[in-house]
Amino acid sequence: MLQVLINGAVLGAVYALIALGLTMVFSIMRVVNFAHGQMYMLGGFVVYYLYGQYGLPFYVALPAAGIVLAVVGVAFNHFFFQPVLATATREENSMLMAVGTALLLENLALTFFGEKQRGVPSVMDGALIFGDVAEGGIVLTHSNALVATLAVLAIVGLLSFVQYTRPGRALRAVAQDKEAARLQGVDVKATTTLGFAIGAALAGLAGGLLVTTYGVNAGMGTNITTKAFIMIMIGGAGVTKGAIVGGVLLGFAEAIGYDLLPGSVTYLMIFIAMIVFLVFKPNGMFGKPWG
Hints:
By secondary structure, the chain is mostly helical. Helix content is 76%, strand content 3%. It is built from 11 helices and 2 strands; from the N terminus they run ααααββααααααα. A hairpin with a 7-residue loop joins strand 1 and strand 2 (138-141). Helix 2 packs antiparallel against helix 3. The termini are far apart.
C-alpha cells in the first residue's frame, strides 16, 4: 500500500498542476476551457519531439512545452475567446466556443500526429529503494521523483507569482471583480490574456511531465479534461487551494483504485463518489455560490 501511496503522490502533484491551469482561466474569464486536455496533449507532443525524437535535453524540452502552449493560449484568447466574450449576450456562446476549440485541437493533432501512442526515454535512470521490495518496500524511480519535484516547484512558483508580483496582484484583482479592477487602472484585456497564457502553459508543462511516464496520443485530451473537471468540482470552481486539493485527492484515488479494482471500475467508483459528494457539497470543498 505504501508503494501505491507514493504513486498517488506523484500523480497528484501533476494533476494539481493541471487543475490549477483550468482554475486560472475560469477564475479570471469565467470561461470553462474544454480544450485544456488538448493543450496538455500538445505539451506532451512538444516534449516527445524535442526530447524523444530530436535529442534535446529534457530541461530544454519541458520549458519549451510551456512556452509553446502559452503562445497557443494567447492566440486562442485573442482570436476566439475575446471576440466572443465581447459580443456574446449568452454564456452558452463562450461554452460552445470552448468546445469548438477542443475539437479543433484534437482533430489537428489526429491529422498531423496520427493515433499512435508515443513514448519517450526515461529522464533519469535508477531508483530510490526503501526497505525490502519483496516484503512491501517502496520503489521511487529517479524519473518519477523528478516529475513530482518539478510539478511542486511549478505550483510554488505560480502561487508566489500570483501573491507577490504586480501582474499577479492584477490577476487576483480581475478574478475578484473585473469592473472594480478596471476602475483601478488594471488593463483587464492584457491581464486576462496573461491568465489564459499561464493556464495553457501549466497544461503544457503537465503534459510534458507525464509523457515521461504515460506517453502521449492525439486522442487523450478529452480524458484529461474530464479529470480536470473532477478535480475542480471536488475542490471548488475557481478556488486555487481547491484545485490543488482536488488534484492530489484524484491522484491518490486513481492510484488506490487501479491497485484494488479493475481499470474500468475505478473511474466508475470515482464518478459515483463524486456525485454523492456534490449532493452534500454542491460548491465543492472550498467553493462559494456564484452569482
